[in-house]
Amino acid sequence: MKKVFKIALLSPLILILLLLAFLSIKYSPTYVYRLVTMNVADVYDYKNFENRVIKGAKSFYSFEEKHEKDYIESLFDERVSQSGFTSFDEWAEKSQTTALIFIRKDTVLYEKYFNGFSRDSYFHSQSIAKSFIAFLIGTAIDDGLIQSVNDPMTKYIPELKERDLRFEKITIKNLLEMRSGLKYNTSLLPGTNIHAPWHDEAIGYYHPNVRKLLLKKLEVESEPGKEFEYNNYNTSYLGLIVERATGKTVSKYLEEKLWSKIMEYDALFSIDSKESGFEYMPSRLIARAIDYARFGRLFLKQGNWNGTQIISDNWVLKSTREDKTISRDHYPVWLGSGCKHTYYSYQWWGNTNCDSTFQFFANGNLGQNIYVIPDKEIIIVHCGNSLQHYSSDWDLMRIAERIR
């Protein structure tokens, strides 16, 4: 009886060890180590990776300041009330908000940091990084290094054709719009909302050689240009295209085309490993919250920075406005279909209103947002480390409605 009991106790451990061994062989021991020790992603993850430094500008534009604390905090009354708290500060603490900046017509009305963070703190972008990668595609087109968004991805990554000719049908535009048809495993552990160890978000995030994944492992699943599917590999391929087209790392090109021109602070970009040296394009840009606001301002001003065109206005329009030729049938139902709905352009999201106004935003997990309300010349930056008591862009959409 004791022997049977011991076997019953050891069986789950043996299965776990076998699973870890399988994952180590399939993906790498480093992947397994990161998966086990880091587990669910958070805003401190960059400390566990090698990071490249992106240098800021020698001189930079500073916003005017005219603080309206009570007014800005009152805009969150609905969220505070729905969360069951009695004050804005309590909500900010419990929601793990780390930064909130509100800018109207180039004037900071609110800038406050919470939960141990300050203006000098690093803020993990999460998927806000995707909008920066799309920016680099636009500057590479401006520079004549990429001809067009209609170029097939294989023009810059020709070896993909050797694995599957269907890669030739995927354009840069398909990657930008998350309509590439690339296979993306989204399996969860049975009975939970936890990613399975073979979920592609986890693999792409923790793998020590993402470039190898892109070149050797990823597959085409369906026809490009059809269904929308949020897939981090799309952004990683865009980064690889930037790398191939420019002959520079994404960090260096980002420094050259953006950071050294307008940003106040240095930033970081995490790489997958020293050996591979490939930035994790979809989410591991790390910067200061006020510099995220500057990026929002650049796109609010249609690429013009105080008289200098940093990126073409046409690229900004294509990136942030809705492409109404795309059928709503190609989007998930939860994004809506009436006059108020959510759309996706060139790695930027957008919300439409029934009066033809709209908002566009860069959005990242755990509460990262650069939310732009063009007709009101408003930029809102929210950073956090949890989605509990905060529903990300949906909260900011309701705030935009309240402002109107």
Structure report:
By secondary structure, the protein is of the alpha+beta class. It has two domains: 36 residues, no CATH class; 330 residues, 3-Layer(aba) Sandwich (Beta-lactamase), CATH 3.40.710. 37% of the residues lie in helices and 15% in strands. The chain has an eight-stranded mixed sheet with strand order 2-4-3-14-13-12-11-10, with helices on both faces. Strands 1-6-7-5 form a four-stranded antiparallel sheet. Helix 1 packs across helix 2, helix 6 runs parallel beside helix 11 and helix 6 crosses helix 12. It is globular, with a radius of gyration of 22 Å. It starts with a helix and ends with a helix.
Write a brief structural summary:
The protein has 404 residues and is α+β, with helices and mostly antiparallel strands. It is built from 15 helices and 14 strands.
Q: Describe the largest sheet.
A: 8 strands, mixed
Biggest sheet strand order reads: 2-4-3-14-13-12-11-10
Distance between the termini: 72 Å
Corresponding CATH architecture of the largest domain: 3-Layer(aba) Sandwich
The Rg value, from CA coordinates, equals 22 Å
Helical coverage, percent range: 25-40%
Structural class estimated from helices and strands: alpha+beta
- Backbone shape: globular
Extract low-pLDDT stretches: none
Q: What is the β-strand count?
A: 14
- Approximate strand percentage: 15-25%
How would you name the CATH homologous superfamily of the largest domain? DD-peptidase/beta-lactamase superfamily
CATH top level label of the largest domain = Alpha Beta
Give the count of helical stretches. 15
The CATH topology of the largest domain comes to Beta-lactamase
